[in-house]
Amino acid sequence: MKDSELSTRLRGPVRIVGTGLLGTSVGLALRGRGIDVTLADASPSALALAVDYGAGRKHRDTDVPALIVVCVPPDVTADIIERELQHFPRAVVTDVASVKLQPFHELVSRGVDLTHYIGSHPLAGRERGGATSARADIFYGRPWVICRDEETPAWALSLVEDLALDLGSTPIEMTPQEHDRSVALVSHVPQVIASLLATRLIDAPDTAVMLAGQGVRDTTRIASSDPALWLQILRANSEPVVAILRSFKEDLGTVIEALEAEDVESDPAPGARRVIADTIAAGNIGVSRLPGKHGQNHRFESITVMVDDKPGTLGHLLTDLGEIGVNMEDLRLEHSPGAQIGFAEISIVPEVKQRAITDLVARGWRIAGL
Amino acid sequence: MKDSELSTRLRGPVRIVGTGLLGTSVGLALRGRGIDVTLADASPSALALAVDYGAGRKHRDTDVPALIVVCVPPDVTADIIERELQHFPRAVVTDVASVKLQPFHELVSRGVDLTHYIGSHPLAGRERGGATSARADIFYGRPWVICRDEETPAWALSLVEDLALDLGSTPIEMTPQEHDRSVALVSHVPQVIASLLATRLIDAPDTAVMLAGQGVRDTTRIASSDPALWLQILRANSEPVVAILRSFKEDLGTVIEALEAEDVESDPAPGARRVIADTIAAGNIGVSRLPGKHGQNHRFESITVMVDDKPGTLGHLLTDLGEIGVNMEDLRLEHSPGAQIGFAEISIVPEVKQRAITDLVARGWRIAGL
Questions:
Q1: Which residue of A has its CA nearest to B328?
Q2: Rg for chain B (alpha carbons), in Å?
Q3: What's the CA gap between A265 and B106, in Å, rounded?
Q4: Which of A191, A132, A126, A8 lies closest to B281 in space, CA to CA?
C-alpha cells in the first residue's frame, strides 16, 4: 500500500493544537495523505520536535483552518476549545480527550457558542506518551467516537467523520454520557483495578515474583500507565467510574466472606462454595462479551509450532505458511527463559487447520500437542 | 533438537496418577525422552485417551515404580497421595497440585508417614484443561517448586528434582507456606480480580464493548478459566488469598472515597487528588517487580514493521531478519479489524536496533514511527 495511492476526504489546512502522542500521530497520518497540517503547542520545543517528525508545519497567522483538532491534556481541553472557537469562528473544532461530558459541561456553563464544536474520542493510544511515540497508524481500524447534538450542522459533523475515516478509524456516534459510561467500563475501571492489583506486588518476596506467569503479567500490564494523565481522566469521569468500582467492591466483599467461611478441617456452608464458583463462572460470561480479535465474534483456532531459537527459523516457518497458502490471523511467540526452543502459536480460521498441520508436518515442522 | 539426542536423569517406570492436562503432559514429556511411563486414572475412558495420546501405558500389577506423580484435582490430592504411599512403600510420591499446605496438613492429621512424600508444583498450565490440551513442552523453562522438609531423604529429593529437570523446568525449593503465599499473590488473587472485573461486562451495552481495546482484554483474559478447578484452589488456599484481597479492598475503598470527593464544579481537597495519582504510581512500581519476558530484568527494544495482510509477507520479513542476522526475542502481531495492513512488533536487544532498522528499510520494509 503506497501513501500516494490513498485518496482523502479532508481538505487542509487542518490545525492541530497540542503535539503529544495523539496530536503528533494525527499530524503524521494526515501529512502521509498529503493534507496540509499546521501545528501549535504551548511548548516551543515540543512543537519543534513534532515539526521535525514530519507531523506538519508551524502555524502562521495567515492560515485559515477548516478543521481544528484539540489534542491537549483533559484538564485544559475546555480552555483550548473555547480559545480556538473564538480565534477561528469559521472553523469546526473537535477534540480527542478521553472524557467527553466534563469539557462539554464546562463550555456550556461558560456560555460558549458550541455550534461549531463536536467532541470526539479516537480509541487509540499507547502506554508510552509524547511525540516520540507517535505513529501515523495508531487510529487504523479503531473506533472513533463522535458526540454531536441536535444543533450540530451536518457539514460540521461530516468534517469530523472525514477526519476519522481519513485516519482509517470507524466513526461511531454516541452521546457524551454514553461515551463516558462506556469508557469507564472498558478503560478507566480496568486501569484502576490493574493498578491496585500491581500494587500488591510492591512488597512481594523475590521468590514470589519468580513464579509469575502470563496471567499476572496480562492482568497488570496497563498498570505501567502515566499517573499524571490518569489522575486527570479519572477525576473527569469519576461518577461512572465510582459506580462500577462500588459494584466491584461489593462483589469482592462477598467473595472475601465466602473464602473466610472456608475451614479446611470441617465442611463449610454450601452457600460459600457456590459464591466462589459463581464468581469465576460470572467472569467466564463477562469476558465472552468482548468481541474477537478482529471485532468479530467467531473464534480462530490455533496451531503451536516448535521453533529453534535461531535467527531465521521463524522466518522459514512463516514463509512455509505463505507457500502453503495459509493466512495467519494472529501470531504469538512464546520463548521460555534460557530455552533453546520457542513456540509459535498461529491463529487461523478453523477450515484450514487440518490442512495446515498436515502440510507443516510434511515440511518437517514439529507441532506441539501432536 | 531431536528427541533422541536428549539424555535423561530419571529411570522408569514413572507412575502417573490422573491423566488430565498436567498428568498427560508429564507423560508425553517423559515418553518423549524414552522413559517408561505407566498411567492410572479413576476414569477408564480418560485413561484410554491418554494412552492413545502416547502419554504412557496402562499400569500393570507387576509394575514397581520408583517415582509416582499424583496429578489429580486438589480436593482428592491428599487421598490419592495416601493411597499411593501405602500401595508402593518403596516409591517416592510427589504431586503437582497448585496448593501445597492443605494436602500436607491433611496427611499429617491422618498420621500418614510422609518420609517418601515430597510435594511439588510446576508453574505451568493452560486455560484449557484435559488430556486433549496436553503438551510435552508446557513445563519447559518454567519454575517447578519443590517442598521438602528436614526428614526428606536426599535420594528422594533428587528424584523429584530429576523429574523437573528432565521436563526442562527449573527446580526451586520452598516451604509449603512460602509457596502458597507466593501463588496467592501471583496467581490466585489475579484470578479472582480478573473474574470480578470481567463480571462488570455482563450487562454492558453492545456499544460499550465495541470500544474495548487491548487493556480490558489483557486484564480479563484469565477470567475464562474453569470454575470447578478454581473453586478447589481458592478454597484450599483461602487464608493468604483473603489477606491480599482484604488489602486490595481497603485500597479500593480509599480510591472510591477520593473519586467521590471530586466535584467538577469546584476544587476538591488536594488529598483526594494525591490518592488517585499515588494509586496509579504505586501500580507502576508494582508491575516493575515482575521479571522481564525472559526471566531477566533488562528490557528489550522494539521495532514495529508494517506488513500487508497477505500469506507469506510476515514470513518474508522474518526471513529478512534472519538474513540480516538479527535474533528476535519476541514478536507481537497487531492486526486491525478489516485492515489490509498489520503491524509486527519485534523485540530485540538494544545493541542491534539501529542496524536492524537500517537494513530493513534498505530491503524495502516500512517501519512504523519512522
A1: A311
A2: 25
A3: 8
A4: A191
Distance (Å, rounded) from C-alpha A70 to C-alpha A68? 6
Phi first, then psi: give them for residue B97, nearest 5 degrees: -65, 150
Q: Which of B76, B68, B152 is nearest to B114 (CA)?
A: B152
Tally the residues of chain B: 370
Distance from CA of A344 to the nearest CA of B (A): 9
Q: B24 — phi, psi (to 5°)? A: -65, -40
- Asked whether this complex has an ipTM greater than 0.85, the answer is no
Q: Are strands B14-17 and B67-70 parallel, antiparallel or unpaired?
A: parallel
CB contact under 8 A, B228 and A277: yes
Residue carrying the nine cell digits 466462589: A276
Determine the residue of chain B that is closest to A201 in CA distance: B286
Cβ distance of B105 and A264 shorter than 8 Å: yes
- Does the beta-carbon distance from B211 to A186 stay under 8 Å? yes
With H, G, I as helix, E, B as strand and everything else as coil, classify residue A129: coil
Could B215 and A310 be called an inter-chain contact, meaning their C-beta atoms sit closer than 8 Å? no
CA closest to B256 among chain A residues: A242
Which one of B102, B174, B318 has the shortest CB-CB distance to A318? B318
Q: Report the residue from A187, A278, A284 with minimal CB separation from B224.
A: A284
Helix (H) or strand (E) holding B67, with range, is strand B67-70
How far apart, in whole angstroms, are the C-alpha atoms of residue A263 and residue A191?
34
Q: Which of A188, A196, A254, A340 to mutate to test the interface with B (most CBs of B within 10 A)?
A: A196
* Residue A116 C-alpha, separation from nearest chain B C-alpha, in angstroms: 24
Distance separating the N- and C-terminal Cα atoms of chain A = 38
In a structure prediction context, what are the per-residue pLDDT tens digits for chain A, which is 370 residues long? 444 445 678 888 999 999 999 999 999 999 999 999 999 999 999 999 899 889 999 999 999 999 999 999 988 999 999 999 999 999 999 999 999 999 999 999 999 999 999 999 999 876 667 777 788 888 888 899 999 888 889 999 999 999 999 998 999 999 999 999 999 999 999 999 999 999 999 999 998 999 998 899 999 999 998 898 899 999 999 999 999 999 999 999 999 999 998 754 456 667 888 999 999 999 999 999 997 643 333 457 788 888 776 767 777 887 788 788 777 767 776 654 444 567 788 878 778 888 889 999 999 888 876 6
Q: How far does A127 lie from chain B, in Å, by closest CA? A: 10
The answer to whether A348 touches A332, Cβ cutoff 8 Å, is: no
For an interface test with A, the pick among B238, B263, B265, B324 (most A C-beta atoms closer than 10 Å) comes out as B238
Report CA B233 to chain centroid distance, whole Å.
14
End-to-end CA distance of chain B: 38
**Rounded-to-integer distance, Cα B256 and Cα B241, Å:** 22
| Closest chain A C-alpha to B364 CA, distance in angstroms | 12
Contact A279 B195 (CB under 8 A): yes
What backbone phi and psi angles, to 5 degrees, belong to B68? Answer: -120, 130
- How far does B148 lie from chain A, in Å, by closest CA? 16
Nearest CA in chain B to A208: B182
Bridge-based pairing of strands A341-348 and A330-335 is: antiparallel
- In chain A, the residue whose alpha carbon lies closest to the alpha carbon of B294 is A337
Contact B316 A311 (CB under 8 A): no
Query: Quick one: which H or E segment has residue B146?
Result: strand B143-147
Instruction: For residues A164 and A171, give the distance between their C-alpha atoms in angstroms, rounded to a whole number.
Output: 6
What single-letter amino acid sits at A272?
A: A
C-alpha A318/C-alpha A211 separation (Å) is 32
**If you write DSSP's letter for every residue of A271-326 in order, what string do you get?**
HHHHHHHHHHHHHHHHHHTSPPTTSSSPPPEEEEEEEESSTTHHHHHHHHHHHHTP
Q: Which helix (H) or strand (E) holds B86?
A: helix B74-87
Q: Shortest CB distance from A322 goes to which of B212, B311, B326?
A: B311
Residues in chain A: 370
